[in-house]
Design brief:
With 312 residues, the chain is an alpha/beta fold. It folds into two domains: 182 residues, FAD/NAD(P)-binding domain (3-Layer(bba) Sandwich); 118 residues, FAD/NAD(P)-binding domain. Helices cover 24% and strands 28% of the residues. The chain contains seven helices and 19 strands. The strands form five sheets. Strands 1, 2, 5, 6, 7, 8 and 19 form a seven-stranded mixed sheet that branches. The radius of gyration is 21 Å and the shape is elongated. The structure holds NADPH dihydro-nicotinamide-adenine-dinucleotide phosphate. The site of NADPH dihydro-nicotinamide-adenine-dinucleotide phosphate (NDP) has 16 residues, from α5.
Amino acid sequence: MTPIHTKCLIIGSGPAGYTAAIYASRAMLSPVVIEGPQPGGQLITTTEVENFPGYIDGVQGPKLMDDLRAQALRFGAEIRSGLVSKVDFTGDVKHVTLSNGDEYTADSVIICTGAAARYLGLPDERKYQGLGVSACATCDGFFYRGRTVAVVGGGDTACEEALYLANLAAKVYLIVRKPYLRASKVMQQRVADNPKIEVLFNTVTMGLFGEEVVEGAHLATHSGTENENFYDIAIDGFFLAIGHQPNTEVFLGAVELDEGGYIKVKAPGTATNVPGVFAAGDVADPVYQQAISAAGMGCRAALDAERYLMER
Ligand code: NDP
């Protein structure tokens, strides 16, 4: 089958991908967007989004993504679904193959494949997803005003989420598997200084309980040792902050990644180490990871691609 050629191939369909598509279409690049296995990205699994500018009363995650998608289509972006299984970025013309065998060639590529929040792997996390379990305090913290919540993790994200939640909730447990926090000193100090946060060191989560929504967590301290101790805490919300996994497996060896697996870009631009290949959104941003910052980066990537094509 002859590959389909485009000036601009956008891989991924979260806020970064669709925003890149809106800008690239309006720049007459006739972009093709490859929607992955979860069109719309992480926001598809979110309920209400209250911090995306422009939606005064908030918006449901899937509705926001439908709107972005429709806006990209309105300007002529072509949207195809499929899973990218192979890429070859070595030449001027980039080659991308999907798992169904479809092949694309492109003069420029924008990678927007996002990242996935890490979970502990407990069956209860799935059972209570959206019913007290969340991996985004900024997105869902507001629903726990005056309540008791737990955050799992000992890094900067966990501390940041705990501090954010402490502004809203009555009490925040920080569940840390080691006897110390991995977070930066300043974050550790802020957590220690906050009277609403109780850090539970050497502690792992065994499970969650609750009639319909999360009502508590089963914990174990010094798990696997002779000092092992099991107890329960009453909580209304359970937040995971144990890191994100960027979706970059298929790009290994094709573009430069950092030690966390995120695509390296030449900030403030979005160029990767491969001319003609750009990256935007959570896949290239280990720090902010917000829908609006991803959308902004998608805009920059499309402008960067346009400039690259013009200069060629
Ligand atoms: P990190 O990888 O730094 O930390 C992950 C934390 O989760 C660690 O404490 C780790 O424990 C814990 N963890 C991992 N797996 C499990 C598990 N299965 N059970 C229990 N705990 C687990 O990720 P972050 O998301 O915190 O940070 C990512 C990067 O982003 C870092 O470089 C960070 O500095 C940066 N960042 C910077 C911010 C800022 O500057 N404002 C804000 C947020 C992030 P353990 O320590 O035992 O391995």
